[in-house]
Amino acid sequence: MDIPEVILCKFGEVVLKGANRQNFESALVKELRRRASPYGAFKIYFKQSTVYVEPQDELCDMDGMYEAAKKVFGIVGVNRAAVCKKDMEDIKRVVRDYLPQKLLGARTFKVDAKRSDKKFPLKSPEISSEIGGVILSSVRGIKVDVHNPDVTVTVEIRDDNAYIRAGQEKGAGGLPIRSAGRGLLLLSGGIDSPVAGCMMAKRGLEIEALHFESFPYTSERAREKVMTLAEEMCEFLGRIHVHVISLTHIQEELRDKCEEDYFTILLRIFMMRLAERCAGEYKCYALITGESLGQVASQTLAAIRVTDSVVDMPVFRPCIGLDKDEIIKEARHYGTFDTAILPYEDCCTVFTPRHPKTQPKLEEVMRELSKVDAEQLIDEAYATMTTETKLVYPEYR
Ligand code: ATP
Ligand code: MG
Q1: Would you state the pLDDT for residue 14?
Q2: Interhelix angle for 21-36 vs 62-69, to 10°?
């Protein structure tokens, strides 16, 4: 007989959130339900600090669902567990049939018994020692090591059933997506900004993205690359709306009318102003960029002071204190690295000055800015905005 399995998702910080706890729990359950849609009919509910993901028939794709659950923020541990009756004989039967396969390759193990049903006749140490004995007699060559085992076998006696599992995999961590409001990510085609978006999504923000292009100076392929990055981010974010605004006219005006050295910082001012407008329209209460202190001319402290001073909302820069190799590690983790390094142009690399100002002074920058009709240019550029929606899979809503 096949042994029924479930996926158990353990909460992380969510458990700590006092009065808000229910909102976090329901955000998490909702997200897991959305994620489950391509993998079959699952019953998903919350109980005793755990989200249960139960397949309703044999058609359910447990492997697919398991992988998807590992990418849901707010969950610290994911594991597949065998379900059995709260009865020692049934538990032993399942241990004998279910565990040998799961312990293949392991040299040592320990048993960790957890008994949230205090009426269960055996105490936790007694359960551990009995089950340890069953494992020793059914898995050839394996030994007990209580300090540093290759695998920990967990037997949980809960209100409804007993659950048996070997090991636990890490979940995505953080807080449930969309539990902390919405932020607008300035998404370029580079390595840093997709990472910044994922990092803030991990803290519970719903991410909306804004990309600037400069057609024909930037190509259709550069835009496609950004759309691919957005799709890749959907593995963790579920859904992203990507807004695209053309900066072509702004960049030509700056080239024709302003001093070349100020070009980069002026362009960033326009980006921030346009982003702020977009954020207002789409109810985003923070901007997010992939900036890292000192990485390039526009990311010195002086430059950041200038760009911050032109907007009236928080700007989150989660990569600010990371080195490039640390950002790359995150980019690999979130699956955006390989696309990010494809060599397409970005609007920031169009008309790049030979000597960009690294220590811009606000008055001088504003003097240069006054050489163009900034408000008119912003209105015009904003009117070019188009929007595409990316989803992790078509059924996701
Ligand atoms: P990234 O790797 O994210 O492109 P970067 O190191 O290349 O960053 P910059 O080009 O100076 O740095 O850009 C800094 C930040 O400004 C980016 O992380 C991103 O948030 C935003 N940005 C840059 N170019 C664009 C663009 N074309 N569209 C939207 N946002 C952009
Ligand atoms: Mg860039």
Answers
A1: 58
A2: 140
**Ligand 2 midpoint to CA 359 (Å):** 20
All domains of the chain in start order, with CATH: 5-170 (3.30.2130.30), 182-396 (3.40.50.620)
CB of residue 211 inside a 6 A radius of ligand 1: yes
Q: Residue 258's pLDDT is what?
A: 95
Average pLDDT, the chain: 93
- Please give the structure tokens belonging to residue 360: 């811009």
d(CA 268, CA 362): 13
pLDDT digits (tens, 9 = 90+) for 97-134: 999 999 999 999 999 999 988 899 999 999 999 999 99
Buried b / exposed e across 1-33, counting CB within 10 Å, b at 16+?
Answer: eeeebbbbbbbbebeeeeeeeeebbebbbebbe
Three-state SS for 169-220 is EECCCCCCCCCCCEEEEECCCCCHHHHHHHHHHHCCCEEEEEEEECCCCCCH
- Chain Cα centroid distance, residue 134: 40
The 3 state secondary structure assigned to 337-374 is HHHHCCCCCCHHHCCCCCCCCCCCCHHHHHHHHCCCCH
172 token code pair = 């995505």
The residue whose CB lies within 8 Å of the most ligand 1 atoms, and thus the one to mutate among 193, 217, 271, 328, is 193
Dihedral class, residue 61 (left if φ above 0, else alpha if ψ from -120 to 50, else beta): beta
∠ CA 220-223-226 to the nearest 5 degrees?
A: 155
pLDDT at 38 over 70: yes
Q: Residue whose CA is closest, atom 11 of ligand 1?
A: 298
CA angle, 375 then 376 then 381, to 5°: 100
Q: How far is CA 363 from the centre of its chain?
A: 39
The structure tokens 């007989």 sit at 1
The two three-digit tokens of residue 216, written as one number = 């024909």
Q: To which H or E segment does residue 8 belong?
A: strand 5-11
Span from the CA of 223 to the centroid of ligand 1 (angstroms): 14
Compute the distance from residue 237 Cα to the ligand 2 centre, in Å: 21
